[in-house]
Amino acid sequence: MLLNERQMHLFEHWPEPGVDDDKKRGFFDQVRRLNSSYPGGLVSYIQNAKKLLADSKAGKNPYDGFTPSVPSGEVLTFGNDNFVSLEAAGVKEARNAAFVLVAGGLGERLGYKGIKVALPRETTTGKCFLQHYIESILSLQEASCKMVGDGCHTKIPFVIMTSDDTNALTIKLLESNSYFGMEPSQVKILKQEKVACLADNDARLALDPNDKYKIQTKPHGHGDVHSLLYSSGLLEQWKSEERKWVLFFQDTNGLLFNAIPSALGVSATKGYNVNSLAVPRKAKEAIGGITKLTHVDGRTMVINVEYNQLDPLLRATGHPDGDANCETGYSPYPGNINQLILELGPYIEELKKTHGAISEFVNPKYTDSTKTAFKSSTRLECMMQDYPKTLPPSAKVGFTVMDTWLAYAPVKNNPEDAAKVPKGNPYHSATSGEMAIYRANSLILRKAGAQIADPVVDTFNEQEVEVWPRITWSPRWGLTFKDIKEKVRGNSSISQRSALVINGRNIFLEGLLLNGTLIVNAVDEAEVKFTGPVQNKGWTIQHVDYKDTSEKEEIRIRGFKFEKVEQLEVNYTEPGKHSLSA
What is its cofactor (predicted)? Predict the structure, then answer.
């Protein structure tokens, strides 16, 4: 097969039989693995690569013949009646859903050596992203069952796609924390394999520079999640259990679950086969825009178009201003945040046709403008959000837009890169990601009727951010806005220097006047009311230099830590009604 595909160079250096036979067998073991993990095998991979490399060399525009237009979707306003009813519809649907986390990446780009899902989502409680995700899914599971009534014991499946880099560390994180309260049988780990590297425009496979009996490999991208789900048999299993939705999300957006109930409600009420979560996007902002593309031959697709391609595409198709803001002050093409909700039935039918293969691209770095040689080997890549590219025109593909403050604060840039971001653009760092959680929680409580002090502006790791009161709660306290509104009564107020940690379901703020730090832990059967003033010296914020190696990496990449001077911590372990009033 390799010789048929003109890969003779792989064997040119092989010595005569009897020499290095074990290494030669090892080579074919690797070839067998590469062949079985790619839809259609290595022959398909090499042929796809030849075509894509030829297109790349010729400078072919993937959008030739397509005209962009604004797709249809829902724009939600946090806290209004429509939002509240969509949240309720989404919670009801959650027991028919499965969640899929793509977590194949290490935190190297962040300046953190571990896996990204192990990073603290925020450092007031220190809970990591994975714990927050699991607790959120468990809260949805419980709330969804409650709505349906007796006899509902549904467990929501949770799939994590890992890679060679993250697999062992992900399993260790789960096992050493008892799966953060989830039943181990609910969690499935699917590991993605790497793909062969390509040495030149003829798609000759690259040998490992350190081992001539090994093909060099690199990651294929998070689009692999579709073929892994297809080949795992999980989709058919979910279908037999009458599940209806598959939600895909990425590893470090600490605000994501604020958006999931209402977005799932949109999918259910609108009957979307594909629903992309999105945020308002400023024209030319460095985030892909969700766009409807119509080809001259009549094909249409609703797809993420990268920001550097959207502007020239619009200019080339009769929009002289290119990617411009409309009367709302934002681009009419909403910003894609790579969270997808797919309807399971149509998803399975589509994957039966494609076997999970996703439209690929290649991004070689050429040595010069002749484009005849590469600086280093390249490979084919694919992205999870390109799934809709192959759908028939009859597919119902839409989007759900939510405010950025509520739904999107990814942690992906290290301090040095974040400090270089032009003023006014998002930093997407550990600093901004944590501060965004406090901002969102403060604004949600404000909307629920509490008086939350305005933030102060401070600079950490050369990034200017708003510092709101450090408010955080467990998902079972505030899964939806309706839940929160029912628990915030009277005239409660929280000062800017305060921190509030709520761990428990039935904790009510009824005229709490907080000026300091308050930590509340309560079992679900305890009902706790807080009224009156709570005052103490609280926790102060200290600046940390990201170059200061005496601090842990997860603190250095934020640029701050808390000095825990004084706090009131109260624990309610007994069922019944309790109140704390000063």
Answer: Mn(2+); Mg(2+)
pTM score: 0.94
- How far is Cα 286 from Cα 309, in angstroms, rounded to an integer? 11
Name the β-bridge partners of 476: none
Q: Are 134 and 158 in contact (CB under 8 A)?
A: yes
The secondary element (H helix, E strand) that includes residue 66 is: strand 66-69
17 CB burial (10 A radius; 0-12, 13-18, 19+)? exposed
CB 557 within 8 A of CB 563: no
Q: What is the CA radius of gyration of the chain?
A: 26
b/e per residue 376-408 (b: at least 16 CB within 10 A): ebbbbbbbbbbbbbebeeebbbbbbbbbbbbbb
Distance CA(328)–CA(326), nearest Å, equals: 5
Residue-wise pLDDT tens digits, 21-64: 999 999 999 999 999 999 999 999 999 999 999 999 998 888 99
- In one letter, which amino acid is 230? Y
Q: Which residues of 288-313 are buried (b: 16+ CB within 10 A; e: fewer)?
A: bbbbbbbeeeeebbbbbbebebbbeb
Q: How many CB atoms lie within 10 A of CB 224?
A: 30
Q: How far apart are CA 514 and CA 518, in angstroms?
A: 8
CA atoms within a 13 Å half-sphere pointing along the CA-CB vector of 76: 32
Give the range among 109-113, 204-208, 398-402 with minimum mean pLDDT: 109-113
Q: Judging by DSSP bridges, how do beta strands 289-295 and 66-69 pair with one another?
A: antiparallel
**For residues 165 and 104, is the Cβ–Cβ distance under 8 A?**
yes
Contact status, residue 342 vs residue 286, Cβ threshold 8 Å: no
